[in-house]
Amino acid sequence: MAVQTGRSPRQLDLFNGRFALNPDDLPQVGSNSAPAFVVCLFDYTCIHCRRLHPLLKDAAARSKGQLSIITLPAPLDSDCNPLIPATQPANFGACDYARLGLAVWRARPNAFREFDDWLLGSAELPSPDQVRARAEALVGRDALEEALRGSWVRDQLKWDVQLYMASSAAIRNARLPQLIFADAVAYGDIEDTEALEHLIQSHRPFARPAP
After folding, report:
1. Which residues is 13 bridged to in the sheet?
2. So what's the pLDDT on residue 9?
3. Which of 56, 75, 160, 204 sees the fewest Cβ atoms within 10 Å?
4. Burial 106-122 (b: 16+ CB within 10 A, else e)
């Protein structure tokens, strides 16, 4: 995985204050009360992102509650991502997968981890119909529809994509996944848990904002 280092703001203000996020409002891997965070931009259809997911879970578990990874979908799909000129066949429907994931989080946060683990842990990417059926089973059809119709999913996905565009411009590379630390942005494939652990130990995570 390549790394681009440089000046970064603190306390979950990203890119010199252009972006600010509250970890309590967003999906994450690890403890919701962890004092430190890393931000991960990913795509459900991205093979490298799918391989990274279990490594993120391992890293969060090994931290014993000290580190959490905020996971934000940035689909490699021109339907919702202006940085993508033409969607590759492997990424068709990525925007829909991202919307469903965000809708599950919005409708029932406690169900999100099960949904995320199922979708990212499948040997093969489930079809959009299968993903929707799973989402409905976890949160209920009406709750899912309400979340999908609401403005939060649309606005959050747009925000995630804008962050991805800013991050990609900063490192001059649009590859996913991207891990945003307080002092660096790392991108591309990570081979194993040890490589991820080394990366985390080599860079400074964000601190949980003071209450």
Report:
1. 20
2. 34
3. 204
4. bbbbebbbebbeebbee
Give the C-alpha separation, 44 to 62, whole Å: 24
Q: Chain-wide mean pLDDT for the chain? A: 92
Torsion angle of alpha carbons 158, 169, 83, 203, nearest 10°?
-60
| Overall number of domains in the chain | 1
Longest dimension (CA), the chain: 45
Taking the C-alpha atoms of residue 55 and residue 191, their distance in angstroms, rounded to an integer, is 9
Range of the domain at 88: 2-207
Distance (Å, whole) CA 172 – CA 158: 20
Q: Are 34 and 40 in contact (CB under 8 A)?
A: no
Q: Does residue 111 come out as left (phi exceeding 0), alpha (psi in the -120 to 50 range) or beta?
A: alpha
Task: Locate 195 and state its tokens.
Answer: 């490589």
**Which spans in the chain are helix H?**
47-62, 94-107, 109-121, 128-139, 141-149, 151-171, 193-202
Instruction: Write out pLDDT tens, residues 141-175.
Output: 999 999 999 999 999 999 999 999 999 999 999 99
> What's the N-to-C CA distance of the chain in angstroms?
34
Listed residue (102, 98, 100) closest to 135, CA to CA: 100
Q: What is the CATH classification number for the domain harbouring 124?
A: 3.40.30.10
The Cα 49–Cα 176 span in angstroms is 7
Asked whether 183 and 102 are in contact (CB, 8 A), the reply is no
